[in-house]
Amino acid sequence: MTGYAPLDVPKPVGDGIWIIDGPPVTCRRMPHPTRAVVVRLQTGGLWVHSPTAWTPELGAALEALGTVAHLVVPNPLHYTHLSDWQARYPEAQSWGVKGAVTRAARQGETLAFDHLLEAPAPWAGEIDQMLIRGSRSHTEYVFFHRASRSLILTDILQSLETAHLPVWMRPLVWFSGADDSDGRMPSLLRRSYHDKRALAASLREMIGWGPSRVLLAHGRCYMKNARGELERAYRRELRKGLWDEVAEEAAKREEP
Q: Is the predicted pLDDT of residue 217 greater than 80, yes or no?
């Protein structure tokens, strides 16, 4: 089975924050485990990041925690179950990126958000957010829940444990760079970031938030040594960005 049982159940990872492990979704014909993150805001409303499949049992469990107030699609890929949640919670505000609307349209689907994530967010002060810069084709926001010091990531870091994957898929995941033995940004996604300096600057800023844990949408979460895991996972990107800065400074000194 692909995933982290029990599925469709809020699991507490800190005060006012839960993860929901959902059923797999297929990406490039490969089943990937999915995970949502739920934060209870000071208003009592629930902030749901990258919603997984909705079930009546999950809905009942969420009602015991609060009222679903915000549905967040952090990149162009994680909208699969949004429409179901919008139908179940018509009063909730949906937030996303333009690329998700475009991608859904190419798939013959209609997707609509109440707000884009670039707009001022009502959870400011409780959850920090930032666009990871440097890519022309991929838009991804990362989030930091201050109270629990939890960093919430979607696709820019994956750590897929082979025990939770079909046997035939395991070498492909290793080749992509998303295997848990050295979880990092998948190679195809990494190549989409043309501006390595901007990417490195974003990653340094993100690491500078000082998380105590990293919650991932795909694979094993890092519940301790968060900074060390992030610096390991992004060592290539951070090193490349540093060398680009050094080379640029050297070029400026050589100018007449």
A: yes
